[in-house]
Hints:
Blueprint: H1 2-13, H2 26-34, E1 43-52, E2 63-71, E3 79-83, H3 86-101
Antiparallel strand pairs: 1-2, 2-3
Helix pairs in contact: 1-3, 2-3
Amino acid sequence: MANTLLNKLNRWAGTNDVDYTSEDIGLSACFKWLVxxxxxxxxxxxxxxxxxxxxxxxxxxxxxxxxxIKLEKYILGRxxxxxxxxxxxxxxxxxxxxDGEKH
Length: 103
């Protein structure tokens, strides 16, 4: 999954081999390369908060992050991601936008 996600994000952002999900530089890379690509959609906001990760993913209570992206182009909806790190949560939310654009 990680390679597929990274390939998809790199293609969408026009970058090569950037690890947007890295715990060290992932969030900085996301805001440098991915977030500016959201501006044409009318970026209204990106919100992060801590949450218990969905029990479907793991039977244990694990704390992680949720990311919500609100865009003017899709005013009635939002794109959400949930993961162990803020960078991965943001990447998963952007992946939903990318996948939604294909339909």
